[in-house]
Amino acid sequence: MKRLAVSFALLMAVTLLGGCATNRYPEDPKDVDLIEVSYKATAALLSQTKMPLPPNSMIVVSTFVNVDELDQTAAFGRIVSSQIASAFNNSGYRIRAMELPTELFVKEDRGMLKLSDETKSALKGTDAAALVVGVFAPGKRSAYVSLRMLDVESETVISTTDFVVPMGPDAKVLLQPRIAGSRKP
């Protein structure tokens, strides 16, 4: 009888503790329309700019990279940067999408960040007024994206925006890492 009581108590404890371990999120997040999110992010960059960008200005949009592994991109970073380039183009700007060096900036002796010589060299001859760079961070249920628009001449940040993308089935696939310039995941 004592053995039955101990077994019953253990069964109840396992059942109760198992209930504590259930997922707090009853269903997986749904995908959002990345095109809509990208176009809204572009509108935010343009509306918050600290200096006017005349229509028809050249804007260079770099491929967005993983914030933890700056030499890694993913289909997510490539498609979002392409959609943002399209949104700039549709807003009357000339755009140029290009893969820039992963080390866009270097730190000067005074601690200031400057565009690296390699980045300056890549931008030379583009007549670019602004450079758009971005990073993404995949989380468990969401991906976080941070964008910066820089004045190419002064190298200062002239606009920023951030957004979140729920980690739906499509986003999960798009966020699989890949070394920048590589065809293999």
List keywords for this structure.
185 residues; two-stranded antiparallel ribbon
Q: Would you kindly provide a written description of the structure presented here, covering whatever features stand out?
A:
The protein has 185 residues and is an alpha/beta fold. 34% of the residues lie in helices and 30% in strands. The protein contains five helices and ten strands, in the order ααβββαβββαβββαβ. The chain has helices spanning 2-20, 34-47, 75-90, 117-123, 169-174, and strands at residues 58-62, 65-66, 72-74, 94-98, 105-107, 113-115, 128-138, 142-151, 157-166, 177-179. The strands form three sheets. Strands 1, 2, 4, 7, 8 and 9 form a six-stranded mixed β-sheet that branches. Strand 5 and strand 6 (113-115) form a beta hairpin. The N and C termini lie far apart (59 Å). The relative contact order is 0.19.
List the helices and strands and how they pair.
Blueprint: H1 2-20, H2 34-47, E1 58-62, E2 65-66, E3 72-74, H3 75-90, E4 94-98, E5 105-107, E6 113-115, H4 117-123, E7 128-138, E8 142-151, E9 157-166, H5 169-174, E10 177-179
Parallel strand pairs: 1-4, 1-7, 2-7
Antiparallel strand pairs: 3-10, 5-6, 7-8, 8-9
Helix pairs in contact: 2-3
